[in-house]
Write a structure and sequence with these properties.
Blueprint lengths: L4 E2 H8 L2 E3 L5 E2 L1 E3 L9 E4 L12 H6 L4 E5 H7 L4 E4 L2 H15 L3 E6 L4 H13 L4 E3 L9 H7 L7 E5 L8 H8 L3 E4 L13 H8 L11 E5 L5 H10 L4 E6 L6 E9 L2 E8 L2 E7 L4 H16 L4 H8 L10 E5 L6 E6 L5 H12 L8 E6 L8 H6 L2 H6 L4 E5 L4 H7 L6 E3 L2 H11 L5 E5 L7 H11 L1
Helix pairs in contact: 4-6, 5-10, 5-11, 8-9, 10-11
C-alpha cells in the first residue's frame, strides 16, 4: 500500500522548502507532539494557547519524519528534517486541497445545530461496513480541524465523512469549499451560538452555506423536523442544488420514521422510503438519535449502498463519548447508571437529552440531574435556560444540581425546593455531587463543554467503577 504522502508530494503541495530532509514516506499527519507516529508529518500550528513551534524538537525526537514550520521559526532556530513555509496552517490547507483533488472517494459533509458528531459517527459506521471510510476524529470541525482531517484522507479511501461546525456566519463556506462533498447533511437548526446571531433564522442561513461547496449533481440531505426547513430549501435552490432529500418524523419526509419505541436500552423504529419499510434497532435511545441514524441510512443509500447493509451496521452503533453514552458502573445487580452528555449543550440537545432521561429508570436508587450552562446564547440566554423548566420536571429527577452562572435562570424558574445545590463552577460542587451518589442511582450530566462537566464524569467513573 502506498503511504499517505511522500516528502516530495508534501513539498510540492505546500510550496515548502525542505531543509536537511531526505525523500521518504509520510505515514500520518499530526498537530500534537504527544501522538506522533513513526514517519509522521508534524504541523506546527499556532493556536489560542499553544504554538506548535515550541514542540518541534519533541515531535522529531518522538519519531516524526518531518516538521512543517514557518520561515520565522527556521530563521531563529535553523534545524533539519523541516519543510519551511510562510504559514503552516495555510500550507496544511494546501495539502488538504491536494488530498481532495486526488481522491476518488464519495464525500459526505455534516453540519447542524445539534447531532453533528453523532450523525457523522453513524455515517462512518454504516459506510465502513462496505468499504474503507475516513472520518473526522472527535469534533475536528473548525478552521484547522477540517483541513487536517482532509489532509489525512487516504488515497485509497472509498468514503469520506467530514463534520463542519461554525459559531459565526461565513465560517462554513471556506471549509465546505475545501471538502467539496457529494452529499451535504444538515441535522437540525436550533437556538445555538445566538450570542453571534440576531435570530435562529440567521443560523439557518449560516448552516445553508454547506450547499456552496456541494459538487455538481450533489444532494442536500435535510432533517425535516424543524420550522426553518423552508429557509434551507430556498438557500439550496439558490446554490443550484437540484436534489434535496428529507428525513425525520414529519409526514412529508422522504425517509419517514413511522414506528418508534424505546425499550431495554435500545430504540426500535420503522422507516418508510419509496414505499418500502426498513426496520432499525439501535443501542441508543431518543428520538434525536433515531433521526441521526436515519440520516446515515439516507446518505448510505445516496452513496450507492443498500438499506439492509446500513441497518445491520447501525444495530451496533452507540453514542459517542460525551454525547449520550451510557455506562453501568459497579456491581451488576446494583450499578450506578451514568449518562454522559457532557460534551456540549444547546436548547435542542438539552431538551432531547432530558426527554431520554425521562424514560430512564434508576437501577435501584434515585434519579440525579447535573446540568450546566448552555453557552453562547447571548441576550436570550436567561429566557432559554428558563424554558427548560418543564423538560426538567418531566425527567423525574429526584435531585437536581446546577453548575454555572447562566443556568441560574433555570433555578429561579424551577422555584424553591427543586434545586438540590448550585455552584458557579464544577470545582465548587463536584465533591458534594459525588458524595450524594450511590450505586443504584441513575445520573445524567449535561452542559456546554466550557463548563467542564467532563471532569465530573471522569470522577464519577473513577469512584464508582
Amino acid at each position: 500500500m502506498r503511504p499517505l504522502w511522500t516528502v516530495a508530494e508534501v513539498v510540492a503541495a505546500t510550496g515548502g522548502r525542505p531543509e536537511g530532509l531526505l525523500e521518504g514516506p509520510i505515514g500520518s499527519i499530526s498537530i500534537d507532539s504527544r501522538d506522533i507516529q513513526p514517519d509522521a508529518l508534524f504541523v506546527a500550528i499556532k493556536g489560542d494557547t499553544h504554538d506548535g513551534h515550541d514542540f518541534v524538537g519533541k515531535a522529531l525526537e518522538q519519531g516524526a519524519a518531518a516538521a512543517l514550520v514557518s520561515e520565522a521559526f527556521h530563521a531563529r532556530n535553523g534545524g533539519s528534517k523541516l519543510i519551511v513555509v510562510a504559514d503552516p496552517l495555510a500550507a496544511l490547507t494546501k495539502l488538504a486541497v491536494a488530498a481532495r483533488a486526488r481522491s476518488q472517494a464519495q464525500i459526505v459533509a455534516v453540519t447542524g445545530s445539534a447531532g453533528k458528531t453523532t450523525t457523522k459517527e453513524a455515517m462512518r459506521t454504516v459506510l465502513a461496513a462496505v468499504g474503507e471510510t475516513h472520518a473526522s476524529v472527535k469534533s475536528f470541525n473548525n478552521h484547522w480541524g477540517v483541513p487536517l482531517t482532509l489532509a489525512r484522507l487516504p488515497r485509497e479511501a472509498r468514503f469520506g465523512v467530514f463534520e463542519i461546525g461554525m459559531n459565526h456566519a461565513g465560517e462554513i463556506t471556506p471549509l465546505v469549499k475545501l471538502v467539496r462533498p457529494h452529499i451535504s447533511v444538515i441535522t437540525t437548526v436550533a437556538a445555538a451560538h445566538l450570542e453571534f446571531f440576531a435570530s435562529v433564522a440567521d443560523i439557518a442561513v449560516a448552516k445553508a452555506e454547506i450547499f456552496l461547496g456541494l459538487e455538481p449533481g450533489g444532494t442536500a440531505v435535510l432533517n425535516g423536523d424543524h420550522e426553518y426547513l423552508h429557509i434551507l430549501f430556498g438557500r439550496a435552490r439558490e446554490a443550484g442544488v437540484s436534489r434535496i432529500v428529507t428525513y425525520g418524523f414529519d409526514e412529508s419526509c422522504d425517509w419517514r420514521i413511522t414506528g418508534y419505541e424505546a425499550r431495554g436500552g435500545r430504540t426500535h423504529l420503522s422507516v418508510v422510503h419509496d414505499g418500502q419499510v426498513h426496520e432499525l434497532s439501535l443501542q441508543v435511545q431518543g428520538r434525536h438519535m433515531a433521526a441521526n441514524a436515519v440520516a446515515a441510512l439516507a446518505a448510505a443509500s445516496l452513496a450507492g449502498e443498500g438499506p439492509s447493509t446500513a441497518a445491520a451496521a447501525l444495530a451496533g452503533f452507540g453514542a459517542p463519548e460525551g454525547r449520550g453514552e451510557s455506562a453501568r458502573l459497579g456491581p451488576a445487580d446494583r450499578p450506578l447508571l451514568l449518562v454522559d452528555e457532557s460534551y456540549n449543550a444547546n436548547v435542542a440537545s438539552m431538551t432531547a437529552a432530558l426527554d431520554v432521561f425521562a424514560g430512564v429508570s434508576a437501577p435501584g436508587g434515585r434519579k440525579v440531574l447535573v446540568l450546566g450552562d448552555m453557552l453562547e446564547l447571548g441576550p436570550l440566554g436567561p429566557e432559554l435556560h428558563a424554558s427548560l423548566k418543564d423538560a426538567v420536571l418531566k425527567s423525574g429527577a429526584d435531585r437536581i444540581y446546577l453548575v454555572g452562572r447562566a443556568i441560574d435562570a433555570l433555578g429561579k424558574a424551577l422555584g424553591e425546593g427543586f434545586v438540590t445545590a448550585q455552584a458557579a463552577s464544577i470545582d465548587e460542587i463536584a465533591e458534594a455531587i459525588l458524595s450524594s451518589l450511590a450505586h443504584g442511582d441513575a445520573v445524567m450530566v449535561k452542559g456546554s463543554n466550557g463548563v467542564r462537566l467532563s471532569s465530573l464524569v471522569k470522577l464519577i467513573r473513577e469512584r464508582f467503577a
